[in-house]
User: What shape does this take?
Amino acid sequence: MKKYFRTLILLCAGLGLSYQSLAQTPTDGLMMPKGDICFLLNFEYGQFDHYWEGETLRKNGTIAKVQRRTAMVMAAYGITKRLDVYAGLPYVSTNSTTPNGGKFAGTSGIQDLALGLKYEALRKKGEKGELTVFGSVLFSTPVSNYLSDYQPYSLGIGAPQLAWRALVEYEWNSGVYLRGQAGYIWKGYTEAEREYYYNDGSYFTSWMDVPSAWTYEAVVGKWFMNKSFRAELSYNSSRSTSGDDIRAYNAPQPTNKVDMDRVGVFAQYFFNKPKGLGVVASYSRVIHGRNAPEMTAISAGVTYQFGLFSPKN
Amino acid sequence: MKILRLILLSLVTGILLAACSMDLETELEYQSYEFSGIDENAGTWKPILISSGSQLSIDTPSGVESAEFLAEVENVKSTIASMSGDQRKNVDHWTNNAVLRWNEVALGLIAKYNLIPGPNEDESYTLPSPANPAGPPVFPFAHPPYASRALAYLSVAQYDGLIAAWHYKFQFKRPAPYQVDLDIPHAYVANNLPSYPSEGAVLATVSRKILTAMFPLEADYLKELEEQHLESLILAGENVPSDLEAGKKIGEEIAGIALARAADDGMKYAQSPKAVSDSLRAAAFERFGWQWENLESPVRPVGLTPLFGQVKMWSVPNVEDTRPVVPPALDSDAFKKDVKILQDYADNVTHERRRIANFWQDGLGTYTPPGHWNDIAGEFILKYKLNSIRTARVFAYMNMAIMDGGISCWDAKYYYYYPRPIQLIKDFETIAGTPNFPSYTSGHSVFSAAAAEVLTYVFPQEGTLFQDWAEEAAISRVYGGIHWTFDATVGTTQGRDVAQYTIDVAKMDGADN
Assistant: This one.
């Protein structure tokens, strides 16, 4: 029972829903039992009224406050004891609050389909706790014709992405755990609807190279209430490997070098009855960035897990 | 297991994608080519700024048998022998038609400087000033009128300089080093143009000088480009140093003449003080009962270049001769019909309309609509293998017509002071950025129609295409939500009308004979 419980909770949580380019990532610390499936339905609201133009934090009356809502459905399935598969699909809508000086229309639509695998490379139980190591890979690609070159209202970066991650988690018998993660996200090319753009020089093409990024995360958390509730604090960071700065008082574009550091809190509660049902909630804030919005986001979601081929009682 | 296979396939695809990298073009892709003709008589064509090509004088060159010339040829041979890899790349870059390359340099600078100054902390705005180009804000703000003017002076001075070069080339008929000494490799496709004076040197110097005046902070960058270009002319086997010297002299002189005109064309008064723009606004309100307002936050006190309509035109004697009719009154059926159309487009953004709005948007941070049409012209210049003087001629007349179109358009904008859709339609939102100047007529429409008209004159077989594009550029502004349909349609007619004045000049310059 205990093991089942923990698996369930960890799997459905911490899928790392986040703004735009970071996309949705299977970043939790454990595996699904073989044949189990878990669904997550999550809503996120984010907003910003300041952003970093290069490294300078500024406001801009043209866009006033930008709001961003994301509804996402995600599923995870245990193929084997050590291999999970993931799929996620977000719907995003964006707009500026009124009044604003730009009068730009917001946008809405389905963003990117994400598919991923996670593999348990090591599990080692010691006297004081347990160490686990995972590797994951996540591929995502746009599934609607949204325009990435319409920032800050674009639904996403409009390019295929491939994220490789390594995770290490150590959980003490007391229920306290630490998790560290490092990853590399390759980001491909996005097609604009214009055939010329400036990126520290002329580009006579509609294709834009979206900078790839390194990502890092550190999490500290603790289980409470006989493992039916947990809370965690996180710090994560993303660094583009190339790209240009947003130019003075100009709109961002997909070629920008986007860096950000974010802090967050996350909580999850798991019901005894009905069995398999859980809720998640989070809050995060970008505390430092470059060519990034100073985004604050809250989210809430529901998870439900059950045995697909081998129903459990 | 089907799902698993699908996922694995996606991952493999992803990995393959990660491995490939696209070659994104940062310059027009072309190499040296055989010209469709070399226009031996181009030295007799009528220039724009001077009376004839012979007005600019250069010394008689040393003869091909002279010790002086032969020493120069030997020198060229040894310089080529010690060419570095980077120098080789420069030679390949500049090609035998450098008009396109310098035009491309201008487009890059326009895009670099096409940034609207943002507000200060206290919500005031500071205007860019040529007296303090480093700013902030930096000078210039290369908006469409500024861009049209920079391109016009560049192209006109290049054209006149090349007419002078052609005049002396075919007077002196001094052969190029690769023709004199067969051991000298020629980097370009041979076109048998006489070498004195070097047309490349004319272009390098005139372009550097005009663009430095237009983009003063780029002086060092432009000087470096000029030197690279001049050096590559020797390394290509095209010219000896005295060919370059004569070309540079022509370049300096014609650039000086062009810049003297520019200094006195009225552009320095175009960004008028608030009192002037307020009086134009009041006059329009008095006459018509409407007035455009800037709705930005914070509000910009003055629209963009209210007096650009008074800048000296190239081919039109009096701007008011090209002023369009009064736009629809705000209580007219024509106006109400337009409101419905705009609302319908805003409520139903189709993929096709969005694509067209974005394709022709050429907004802040880009090379502007005049730049877009220069880009288009380049493509057809290459398709028809025009030589460098024909190339300069196309750009000169097209950019004159574009600038005249802009002047005529701005005259209408600040005479009529007509409001934008966001001002008159409640809660209206757009997918393109609403610019800081009145609506009627649409700048994109006028610039594009003027450009298309000149290109149709030069390449009549492609005329339908150019006209279609001009109309698409015009309607793109309506799709973007920032112009009325009559801004676009009347603007298109206005652009064609204005361009006709320049085409009449072009037809008389002797190139069509």
Remarks:
- The domain at 2-307 of chain A is CATH 2.40.160.40 (Porin).
- Chain A touches chain B through 52 residues (CB under 8 Å).
- Confidence is low (pLDDT under 50) at residues 1-25 of chain A.
